[in-house]
Amino acid sequence: MTTEALATDRALLARTSTAERVAAVLRTRIIEGYFPPGTRLAEDAIGSALGVSRNTLREAFRLLSHERLLTHELNRGMFVRTLTAEDVIDLYRVRRLVECGVLRTVTFPHPGLEAVAAAVRDGEEALGARDWQALGTANIKFHKELVALAGSPRTDELMSGILAELRLVFHVMADPQRFHEPYLARNRQILEQLQRCDGSGAADELDVYLRDAENQLVQAFAEREAGPGA
């Protein structure tokens, strides 16, 4: 991740820059996959790119640490957190509660489904371009828009942190194409169920989908811990 990409976010902060806004920019970059687990976040480079003071940046780091996205290592600095299989299990427990709960409420033609459909189209474009990082981002956007159907700023805020952690989990997959590609068709199936106002059926499908993804990720963590040839 280069500082040039962060510099493009500087205009968003403008003169009313706050630690919360800086944290939002960095969280978005994590969701987009630009900061993989273990990345050291250099204060000088990031602060200069965003045009913010060291104190503001450190407060943003503190906020993201509270969200379990960053961790501080003594005498080394701030790093993007590396998650564990236990984190995966807990994340997916929350996801099933929130996402499936939202889908069960969709029993009418919901205007928010266009944003869900746009996320599916983004995934299809990424697949055509064989851009697996973009495909992962489109998948995250799909789930973000599913939760947005609830029309709750608090749920949106909760999901933003969950999805940022999820991107860090995705990095455990050695073959992102093999992991992400099959879920694109399942995203479209869920979208079509919602378009038919079958929120209950979509929720049941999503529950299976999330359990499948959780099992794949937990297995990947187990294989990584076992080491090559295990």
Structural description of this entry:
This protein has 230 residues and is mainly alpha-helical. It folds into 2 domains: 3-80, Orthogonal Bundle (Arc Repressor Mutant, subunit A), CATH 1.10.10.10; 85-226, Up-down Bundle (Four Helix Bundle (Hemerythrin (Met), subunit A)), CATH 1.20.120.530. Helices cover 70% and strands 4% of the residues. It contains 11 helices and 3 strands. The protein has helices spanning 3-7, 10-13, 19-31, 43-50, 54-66, 85-103, 113-129, 132-148, 153-170, 176-195, 199-226; strands at residues 40-41, 70-73, 77-80. A 3-stranded antiparallel sheet has the order 1-3-2. It is globular, with a radius of gyration of 18 Å. The mean pLDDT is 91.
Task: Quickly describe the structure.
By secondary structure, this protein is mostly helical. It contains eleven helices and three strands. It has helices at 3-7, 10-13, 19-31, 43-50, 54-66, 85-103, 113-129, 132-148, 153-170, 176-195, 199-226, and strands spanning 40-41, 70-73, 77-80.
